[in-house]
Protein backbone atom coordinates (compact mmCIF):
# COMPACT_ATOMS: atom_id res chain seq x y z
CA UNK A 1 0.00 0.00 0.00
CA UNK A 2 1.22 3.51 -0.86
CA UNK A 3 0.56 5.94 1.96
CA UNK A 4 1.10 9.70 2.20
CA UNK A 5 1.76 10.99 5.71
CA UNK A 6 1.17 14.61 6.65
CA UNK A 7 2.54 15.21 10.17
CA UNK A 8 1.26 17.84 12.58
CA UNK A 9 4.71 19.47 12.45
CA UNK A 10 7.33 18.91 9.71
CA UNK A 11 9.79 16.94 11.85
CA UNK A 12 10.73 13.26 11.85
CA UNK A 13 9.91 12.47 15.47
CA UNK A 14 6.95 11.26 17.46
CA UNK A 15 3.94 9.10 16.77
CA UNK A 16 3.70 9.45 12.98
CA UNK A 17 7.40 8.62 12.63
CA UNK A 18 7.11 5.46 14.74
CA UNK A 19 4.08 4.32 12.73
CA UNK A 20 5.81 5.18 9.44
CA UNK A 21 8.90 3.14 10.29
CA UNK A 22 6.78 0.11 11.09
CA UNK A 23 4.64 0.58 7.98
CA UNK A 24 7.79 0.30 5.85
CA UNK A 25 8.94 -2.76 7.80
CA UNK A 26 5.58 -4.37 7.03
CA UNK A 27 6.08 -3.81 3.29
CA UNK A 28 4.22 -0.55 2.68
CA UNK A 29 5.55 2.46 0.75
CA UNK A 30 5.55 5.68 2.77
CA UNK A 31 5.70 9.17 1.29
CA UNK A 32 5.96 12.24 3.53
CA UNK A 33 4.66 15.64 2.50
CA UNK A 34 6.68 18.23 4.42
CA UNK A 35 7.10 22.00 4.35
CA UNK A 36 9.52 24.64 5.67
CA UNK A 37 8.72 26.60 8.80
CA UNK A 38 10.64 29.60 10.24
CA UNK A 39 11.73 27.88 13.46
CA UNK A 40 13.40 28.83 15.65
CA UNK A 41 12.19 32.44 15.47
CA UNK A 42 15.61 33.97 14.90
CA UNK A 43 16.84 36.34 12.18
CA UNK A 44 18.97 33.62 10.57
CA UNK A 45 16.04 31.18 10.44
CA UNK A 46 13.61 33.84 9.18
CA UNK A 47 15.93 34.71 6.29
CA UNK A 48 16.54 31.04 5.53
CA UNK A 49 12.78 30.43 5.40
CA UNK A 50 12.38 32.88 2.52
CA UNK A 51 14.47 30.65 0.27
CA UNK A 52 13.63 27.17 1.61
CA UNK A 53 9.86 27.73 1.43
CA UNK A 54 9.86 28.49 -2.28
CA UNK A 55 12.04 25.60 -3.43
CA UNK A 56 10.38 22.20 -3.99
CA UNK A 57 12.48 19.17 -3.19
CA UNK A 58 12.24 15.39 -3.19
CA UNK A 59 14.64 13.40 -1.04
CA UNK A 60 15.09 10.14 0.81
CA UNK A 61 15.03 10.06 4.59
CA UNK A 62 15.79 6.64 6.01
CA UNK A 63 13.25 4.42 4.25
CA UNK A 64 10.78 7.20 3.37
CA UNK A 65 10.38 9.37 0.29
CA UNK A 66 10.05 12.98 1.39
CA UNK A 67 8.37 15.61 -0.77
CA UNK A 68 8.77 19.23 0.34
CA UNK A 69 5.85 21.40 -0.65
CA UNK A 70 6.17 24.94 -1.97
CA UNK A 71 4.64 27.62 0.22
CA UNK A 72 4.96 31.35 0.80
CA UNK A 73 7.42 32.13 3.62
CA UNK A 74 6.21 32.62 7.18
CA UNK A 75 2.41 32.36 7.41
CA UNK A 76 -0.14 33.02 4.69
CA UNK A 77 -2.98 30.76 5.85
CA UNK A 78 -5.49 30.92 3.01
CA UNK A 79 -3.00 31.24 0.15
CA UNK A 80 -0.70 28.54 1.49
CA UNK A 81 -3.70 26.33 2.16
CA UNK A 82 -4.82 26.50 -1.46
CA UNK A 83 -1.28 25.84 -2.74
CA UNK A 84 -0.88 22.91 -0.34
CA UNK A 85 -4.16 21.29 -1.44
CA UNK A 86 -3.08 21.59 -5.07
CA UNK A 87 0.20 19.84 -4.30
CA UNK A 88 -1.45 17.07 -2.27
CA UNK A 89 -3.78 16.25 -5.16
CA UNK A 90 -0.87 16.17 -7.63
CA UNK A 91 1.27 13.98 -5.37
CA UNK A 92 -1.61 11.60 -4.66
CA UNK A 93 -2.21 11.10 -8.37
CA UNK A 94 1.48 11.03 -9.36
CA UNK A 95 2.53 8.21 -7.02
CA UNK A 96 -0.76 6.31 -7.15
CA UNK A 97 -1.35 6.62 -3.43
CA UNK A 98 -4.19 4.73 -1.79
CA UNK A 99 -4.66 6.67 1.44
CA UNK A 100 -3.49 9.78 3.28
CA UNK A 101 -2.73 9.58 6.99
CA UNK A 102 -2.90 13.13 8.30
CA UNK A 103 -2.27 14.87 11.61
CA UNK A 104 -2.83 18.32 10.06
CA UNK A 105 -4.44 20.86 12.38
CA UNK A 106 -4.40 24.19 10.50
CA UNK A 107 -5.63 25.73 7.26
CA UNK A 108 -2.16 25.80 5.71
CA UNK A 109 -1.86 21.99 5.57
CA UNK A 110 -5.47 20.80 5.43
CA UNK A 111 -6.25 17.80 3.21
CA UNK A 112 -8.94 18.47 0.55
CA UNK A 113 -12.16 16.58 1.26
CA UNK A 114 -12.20 14.82 -2.14
CA UNK A 115 -9.16 12.69 -1.15
CA UNK A 116 -9.39 9.59 1.09
CA UNK A 117 -7.88 10.36 4.48
CA UNK A 118 -7.54 8.77 7.89
CA UNK A 119 -7.40 11.71 10.26
CA UNK A 120 -5.26 11.14 13.34
CA UNK A 121 -6.06 13.04 16.51
CA UNK A 122 -2.76 12.51 18.30
CA UNK A 123 -3.50 15.48 20.55
CA UNK A 124 -6.10 18.12 21.34
CA UNK A 125 -4.65 20.47 18.75
CA UNK A 126 -6.60 23.57 19.78
CA UNK A 127 -6.03 23.21 23.52
CA UNK A 128 -2.44 24.57 23.91
CA UNK A 129 -3.54 28.06 22.88
CA UNK A 130 -6.63 27.84 25.08
CA UNK A 131 -4.65 26.73 28.12
CA UNK A 132 -1.34 28.55 27.76
CA UNK A 133 -1.80 31.03 24.96
CA UNK A 134 -0.88 34.68 25.09
CA UNK A 135 -3.05 37.09 23.11
CA UNK A 136 -0.84 36.66 20.02
CA UNK A 137 -0.68 32.88 20.43
CA UNK A 138 -4.48 32.69 20.54
CA UNK A 139 -4.73 35.10 17.61
CA UNK A 140 -2.38 32.90 15.54
CA UNK A 141 -4.48 29.80 16.28
CA UNK A 142 -7.57 31.77 15.28
CA UNK A 143 -6.03 32.90 11.98
CA UNK A 144 -4.93 29.34 11.23
CA UNK A 145 -8.44 28.13 11.99
CA UNK A 146 -7.28 25.33 14.29
CA UNK A 147 -10.65 24.52 15.88
CA UNK A 148 -12.54 24.80 12.59
CA UNK A 149 -10.01 22.77 10.59
CA UNK A 150 -9.86 20.00 13.21
CA UNK A 151 -13.65 19.71 13.21
CA UNK A 152 -13.87 19.81 9.40
CA UNK A 153 -11.20 17.15 8.92
CA UNK A 154 -12.98 14.87 11.39
CA UNK A 155 -16.14 15.31 9.32
CA UNK A 156 -14.44 14.71 5.97
CA UNK A 157 -12.27 11.73 6.93
CA UNK A 158 -13.07 8.12 6.06
CA UNK A 159 -12.24 7.43 9.70
CA UNK A 160 -10.65 9.14 12.69
CA UNK A 161 -8.02 7.56 14.92
CA UNK A 162 -7.61 8.94 18.43
CA UNK A 163 -5.25 8.36 21.34
CA UNK A 164 -7.57 9.03 24.28
CA UNK A 165 -11.10 8.82 25.59
CA UNK A 166 -11.46 12.61 25.57
CA UNK A 167 -10.58 12.74 21.86
CA UNK A 168 -12.85 9.77 21.13
CA UNK A 169 -15.82 11.66 22.58
CA UNK A 170 -14.87 14.76 20.59
CA UNK A 171 -14.45 12.95 17.25
CA UNK A 172 -17.64 10.91 17.66
CA UNK A 173 -19.65 14.13 17.39
CA UNK A 174 -18.42 14.58 13.80
CA UNK A 175 -17.66 11.10 12.45
CA UNK A 176 -19.23 7.71 13.19
CA UNK A 177 -16.03 5.84 12.28
CA UNK A 178 -13.75 6.59 15.22
CA UNK A 179 -11.10 4.16 16.47
CA UNK A 180 -8.84 4.25 19.49
CA UNK A 181 -5.23 3.84 18.42
CA UNK A 182 -3.01 4.67 21.40
CA UNK A 183 0.68 5.45 21.38
CA UNK A 184 3.14 2.61 21.52
CA UNK A 185 6.63 1.45 22.41
CA UNK A 186 9.65 0.36 20.37
CA UNK A 187 9.42 -3.31 21.32
CA UNK A 188 12.49 -4.54 19.45
CA UNK A 189 14.81 -1.89 20.88
CA UNK A 190 13.45 -2.25 24.41
CA UNK A 191 13.83 -6.03 24.35
CA UNK A 192 17.48 -5.62 23.31
CA UNK A 193 18.08 -3.18 26.16
CA UNK A 194 16.39 -5.53 28.64
CA UNK A 195 18.84 -8.27 27.66
CA UNK A 196 21.82 -6.02 28.38
CA UNK A 197 22.49 -6.49 32.09
CA UNK A 198 25.05 -3.66 32.06
CA UNK A 199 22.18 -1.17 31.71
CA UNK A 200 20.43 -2.19 34.94
CA UNK A 201 20.43 0.34 37.82
CA UNK A 202 23.09 0.26 40.49
CA UNK A 203 21.37 2.93 42.59
CA UNK A 204 17.81 2.28 43.77
CA UNK A 205 17.37 6.02 44.32
CA UNK A 206 18.19 6.98 40.73
CA UNK A 207 15.49 8.84 38.80
CA UNK A 208 15.08 9.96 35.20
CA UNK A 209 12.83 12.55 33.58
CA UNK A 210 12.53 12.22 29.80
CA UNK A 211 10.32 14.78 28.05
CA UNK A 212 10.17 17.93 25.98
CA UNK A 213 10.54 20.49 28.73
CA UNK A 214 7.64 22.79 27.90
CA UNK A 215 5.91 25.18 30.28
CA UNK A 216 3.58 22.36 31.31
CA UNK A 217 6.45 20.14 32.52
CA UNK A 218 6.80 21.68 35.99
CA UNK A 219 10.54 21.42 35.49
CA UNK A 220 11.75 23.78 38.23
CA UNK A 221 9.20 22.41 40.72
CA UNK A 222 10.51 18.91 39.98
CA UNK A 223 14.13 19.97 40.51
CA UNK A 224 13.26 21.72 43.76
CA UNK A 225 11.41 18.61 44.96
CA UNK A 226 14.47 16.45 44.26
CA UNK A 227 16.66 18.95 46.16
CA UNK A 228 14.29 18.78 49.12
CA UNK A 229 14.30 14.96 49.06
CA UNK A 230 18.09 14.89 48.92
CA UNK A 231 18.12 15.63 52.64
CA UNK A 232 16.26 12.34 53.31
CA UNK A 233 17.83 10.33 50.51
CA UNK A 234 21.49 11.36 50.10
CA UNK A 235 21.91 8.90 47.21
CA UNK A 236 19.10 10.42 45.15
CA UNK A 237 20.17 11.08 41.57
CA UNK A 238 18.20 12.67 38.73
CA UNK A 239 18.95 12.55 34.99
CA UNK A 240 17.12 15.00 32.70
CA UNK A 241 16.75 14.07 29.02
CA UNK A 242 15.13 16.39 26.48
CA UNK A 243 15.04 20.03 25.45
CA UNK A 244 12.45 22.77 25.47
CA UNK A 245 11.73 26.31 26.60
CA UNK A 246 12.49 25.43 30.24
CA UNK A 247 16.07 24.41 29.39
CA UNK A 248 17.82 27.65 30.40
CA UNK A 249 15.83 27.84 33.66
CA UNK A 250 16.83 24.28 34.55
CA UNK A 251 20.50 24.89 33.78
CA UNK A 252 20.47 28.07 35.89
CA UNK A 253 18.77 26.23 38.76
CA UNK A 254 21.34 23.43 38.70
CA UNK A 255 24.21 25.93 38.65
CA UNK A 256 22.78 28.34 41.25
CA UNK A 257 21.96 25.54 43.70
CA UNK A 258 25.26 23.70 43.08
CA UNK A 259 23.56 20.34 42.58
CA UNK A 260 25.56 19.15 39.56
CA UNK A 261 26.73 16.12 41.52
CA UNK A 262 23.23 14.60 41.63
CA UNK A 263 21.16 16.40 38.97
CA UNK A 264 22.43 15.87 35.43
CA UNK A 265 21.02 17.58 32.34
CA UNK A 266 21.84 15.72 29.10
CA UNK A 267 19.68 17.68 26.66
CA UNK A 268 18.05 16.05 23.65
CA UNK A 269 19.22 12.51 22.88
CA UNK A 270 18.26 11.36 19.38
CA UNK A 271 19.44 7.74 19.63
CA UNK A 272 16.41 5.78 20.86
CA UNK A 273 18.47 2.86 22.15
CA UNK A 274 20.58 5.26 24.20
CA UNK A 275 17.43 6.84 25.66
CA UNK A 276 16.08 3.43 26.68
CA UNK A 277 19.46 2.46 28.13
CA UNK A 278 19.44 5.65 30.21
CA UNK A 279 15.93 4.81 31.44
CA UNK A 280 16.97 1.26 32.24
CA UNK A 281 19.90 2.51 34.31
CA UNK A 282 17.43 4.41 36.50
CA UNK A 283 15.04 2.97 39.07
CA UNK A 284 12.23 5.54 38.77
CA UNK A 285 10.84 7.39 35.74
CA UNK A 286 9.12 10.77 36.11
CA UNK A 287 6.08 11.85 34.10
CA UNK A 288 5.37 15.29 35.55
CA UNK A 289 2.79 17.62 34.06
CA UNK A 290 0.18 20.24 34.65
CA UNK A 291 -3.30 18.76 34.68
CA UNK A 292 -5.60 20.40 32.16
CA UNK A 293 -7.74 19.53 29.11
CA UNK A 294 -4.73 19.46 26.80
CA UNK A 295 -2.66 17.13 28.95
CA UNK A 296 -5.66 14.93 29.81
CA UNK A 297 -6.29 14.34 26.10
CA UNK A 298 -2.75 13.03 25.50
CA UNK A 299 -1.66 9.41 25.70
CA UNK A 300 1.25 8.85 28.13
CA UNK A 301 3.96 7.38 25.93
CA UNK A 302 6.64 7.84 28.60
CA UNK A 303 4.62 5.92 31.19
CA UNK A 304 4.38 3.10 28.65
CA UNK A 305 8.14 3.17 28.02
CA UNK A 306 9.01 3.30 31.73
CA UNK A 307 6.64 0.39 32.36
CA UNK A 308 7.93 -1.66 29.42
CA UNK A 309 11.37 -1.39 31.01
CA UNK A 310 10.00 -2.47 34.40
CA UNK A 311 10.49 0.87 36.16
CA UNK A 312 8.57 2.49 38.93
CA UNK A 313 7.03 5.72 37.68
CA UNK A 314 5.74 8.89 39.30
CA UNK A 315 3.03 10.62 37.29
CA UNK A 316 0.50 13.43 37.45
CA UNK A 317 -3.08 12.15 37.76
CA UNK A 318 -3.83 12.54 34.05
CA UNK A 319 -6.94 10.75 32.79
CA UNK A 320 -5.14 8.35 30.46
CA UNK A 321 -2.55 7.47 33.12
CA UNK A 322 -5.32 6.63 35.58
CA UNK A 323 -7.08 4.56 32.90
CA UNK A 324 -3.95 2.40 32.48
CA UNK A 325 -4.04 1.55 36.20
CA UNK A 326 -0.50 0.14 36.18
CA UNK A 327 0.79 -1.26 39.52
CA UNK A 328 4.22 0.35 39.06
CA UNK A 329 2.88 3.92 38.72
CA UNK A 330 2.65 6.26 41.70
CA UNK A 331 0.08 8.96 40.93
CA UNK A 332 0.02 12.36 42.60
CA UNK A 333 -2.68 15.01 42.59
CA UNK A 334 -2.45 18.71 43.42
CA UNK A 335 -5.93 18.41 44.95
CA UNK A 336 -4.32 16.44 47.78
CA UNK A 337 -2.09 19.37 48.70
CA UNK A 338 0.81 21.33 47.26
CA UNK A 339 3.35 18.87 48.72
CA UNK A 340 1.71 15.83 47.14
CA UNK A 341 4.41 15.56 44.47
CA UNK A 342 7.09 15.36 47.15
CA UNK A 343 5.09 12.83 49.17
CA UNK A 344 4.49 10.66 46.10
CA UNK A 345 8.15 10.76 45.08
CA UNK A 346 9.02 9.76 48.63
CA UNK A 347 6.67 6.76 48.41
CA UNK A 348 8.33 5.67 45.17
CA UNK A 349 11.81 6.04 46.68
CA UNK A 350 10.81 4.05 49.78
CA UNK A 351 9.10 1.30 47.77
CA UNK A 352 11.35 -1.78 47.82
CA UNK A 353 10.18 -3.29 44.51
CA UNK A 354 12.45 -3.28 41.48
CA UNK A 355 12.39 -4.46 37.84
CA UNK A 356 12.22 -8.11 38.91
CA UNK A 357 8.80 -7.38 40.45
CA UNK A 358 7.45 -5.75 37.29
CA UNK A 359 8.09 -8.46 34.70
CA UNK A 360 4.36 -8.99 34.17
CA UNK A 361 3.60 -5.33 33.47
CA UNK A 362 6.66 -5.13 31.21
CA UNK A 363 5.44 -8.12 29.18
CA UNK A 364 1.90 -6.72 29.06
CA UNK A 365 3.06 -3.37 27.65
CA UNK A 366 5.37 -4.96 25.09
CA UNK A 367 2.62 -7.34 23.94
CA UNK A 368 -0.20 -4.78 23.92
CA UNK A 369 1.36 -1.48 22.92
CA UNK A 370 4.06 -2.32 20.40
CA UNK A 371 4.18 -0.07 17.32
CA UNK A 372 4.12 -3.25 15.21
CA UNK A 373 0.72 -4.30 16.57
CA UNK A 374 -0.64 -0.75 16.41
CA UNK A 375 0.47 -0.43 12.79
CA UNK A 376 -1.29 -3.69 11.93
CA UNK A 377 -4.45 -2.25 13.51
CA UNK A 378 -4.00 0.95 11.49
CA UNK A 379 -3.87 -1.03 8.24
CA UNK A 380 -7.04 -2.89 9.29
CA UNK A 381 -8.72 0.48 9.92
CA UNK A 382 -7.56 1.78 6.53
CA UNK A 383 -8.83 -1.29 4.67
CA UNK A 384 -12.17 -1.26 6.47
CA UNK A 385 -12.61 2.48 5.92
CA UNK A 386 -11.70 2.29 2.22
CA UNK A 387 -14.17 -0.55 1.69
CA UNK A 388 -16.95 1.51 3.25
CA UNK A 389 -15.96 4.61 1.31
CA UNK A 390 -15.99 2.79 -2.05
CA UNK A 391 -19.53 1.46 -1.66
Compact summary:
By secondary structure, the protein is α/β, with parallel strands linked by helices. The protein has 17 helices and 14 strands.
Features:
single chain; 391 residues; alpha/beta; Rossmann fold; 2 domains; 17 helices; 45% helix
Show the helix and strand layout.
Layout: E1 2-6, H1 15-25, E2 29-34, H2 43-53, E3 57-61, E4 64-68, H3 77-95, E5 99-102, E6 117-121, H4 127-132, H5 135-143, H6 146-156, E7 159-162, H7 165-172, E8 178-180, H8 187-195, E9 206-210, H9 219-230, E10 237-241, H10 247-256, E11 263-267, H11 272-280, E12 284-287, H12 293-296, H13 301-308, E13 312-316, H14 319-324, E14 329-332, H15 340-350, H16 359-368, H17 371-390
Parallel strand pairs: 1-2, 1-5, 2-4, 5-6, 6-7, 7-8, 9-10, 9-12, 10-11, 12-13, 13-14
Antiparallel strand pairs: 3-4
Helix pairs in contact: 1-17, 8-11, 9-15, 13-16
Could you explain the architecture of this structure?
This protein has 391 residues and is α/β, with parallel strands linked by helices. It folds into two domains: 2-184 and 370-386, Rossmann fold (3-Layer(aba) Sandwich), CATH 3.40.50; 187-368, Glycogen Phosphorylase B (Rossmann fold, 3-Layer(aba) Sandwich), CATH 3.40.50.2000. Helix content is 45%, strand content 17%. The protein is built from 17 helices and 14 strands. An eight-stranded mixed sheet has the order 3-4-2-1-5-6-7-8, sandwiched between helices. A six-stranded parallel sheet has the order 11-10-9-12-13-14, with helices on both faces. Strand 9 (206-210), helix 9 (219-230) and strand 10 (237-241) form a beta-alpha-beta unit. Helix 1 crosses helix 17 and helix 13 crosses helix 16 (359-368). The longest helix is centred in the C-terminal third of the chain and has 20 residues, at 371-390. It is globular, with a radius of gyration of 22 Å. The protein starts with a strand and ends with a helix. The model has no long low-confidence stretch (mean pLDDT 94).
Amino acid sequence: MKIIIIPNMPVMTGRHYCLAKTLVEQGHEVHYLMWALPYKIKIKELIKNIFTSLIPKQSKYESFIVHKAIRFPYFFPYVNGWIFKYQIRNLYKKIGAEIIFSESWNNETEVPKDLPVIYDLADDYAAPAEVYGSFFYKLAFKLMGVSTVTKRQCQNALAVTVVSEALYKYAKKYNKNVYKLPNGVDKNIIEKVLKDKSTYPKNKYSMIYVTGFGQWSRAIETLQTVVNLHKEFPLIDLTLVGNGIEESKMLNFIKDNKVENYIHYLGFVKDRKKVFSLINKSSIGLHISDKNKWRDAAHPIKVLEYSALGKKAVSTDLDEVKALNFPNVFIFSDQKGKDNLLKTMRLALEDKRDHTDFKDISKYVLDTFSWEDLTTKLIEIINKSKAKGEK
